[in-house]
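Hi team,

Filling in the usual template for the complex we talked about on Friday. All components are listed, including any nucleic acid strands or ligand strings, so the model treats them as one assembly.

SUBMITTER: L.P.
PURPOSE: interface mapping
COMPONENTS: two
RESIDUES: 288
SEQUENCES:
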Amino acid sequence: MSGPAVQKKRLMPADMPWHWSMSVPTSQGWRIDDPGSLIFTGAQFSVDASGKTLGRSDIEVQTDNVFTNITRVLREAGADWSNVVKMNTYYVFDGPENDATEFWEKMTRVRVRFYANPAHCGTGVRVSGLPGDGLLISAAAIAVLPSQASPQG
Amino acid sequence: MPADQPRNSLMPQSLSQGWKVDDARGLLFVGGQISADREGVVVDPGNLQAQVHNVFTNIGRVLRDGNATWSDVVRLDAYYMLDDDHDPVGYWDVVSAVSAEFLPDPGPVWTAVQVPGLAYPGLLIEIDATAVVEG
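RESULT (copied from the run log):
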């Protein structure tokens, strides 16, 4: 995509004491100045056109479907993952607590296949349920695009 | 702050009911902050006060790198797990007391969502922030 660079600054404090449990391109924050267009995707789910759950009890299949669906919404707005600045992922995990990290990493290995590098910042939220039978994950993104009226840079 | 708005006494008293920002120049998103080390190992497991302090300190680091301050924060989203040591009142007393060390008064709007767990066992709270810098 050509066009003027968005006024975006990735925020990765040098003195930040923590990182995720695996290597990810995720950022700690983004500052955006004079945004042109803001894009909010709705929560995406692993369902077919009739609303039937796809990949029941398979977090990898469901994650792939959810993130593919987000890609579709971004594309409709002329955006891609490099334009995403923030996202929230909501997931269901009801196994033993000691397996929580392994589950999160399994899900995250699929998520990062979609991410730009460097990627948006994000928040992962474990929830007790999602609106659909057997759904394990839902996610939504916020993206920023340069103004359509801006001169080509 | 609608005068006739009921409010939740559990939540930090500096919280606002809404903010309108005119002439927004910069938007700042802070990803969910947790109390962990550089390998993703939870720091201060089971210690709510310390975890809240670490989370707010980490949010402050991102704000600083984005040339923003706590006064620019318009919204905090908190995801929290009740532990065995606190009932909801005691839990939010701790969060409110620690947050008061960081937040201006009036402070941002808050959402708070109790969750069945967080990414890593031992985490009690994760908070992300949205800030708007005026031109």
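MY TAKE: The beta strands of chain B are 24-33, 73-80, 109-114, 125-134. The first strand of chain B starts at residue 24 and ends at 33.

Thanks, L.
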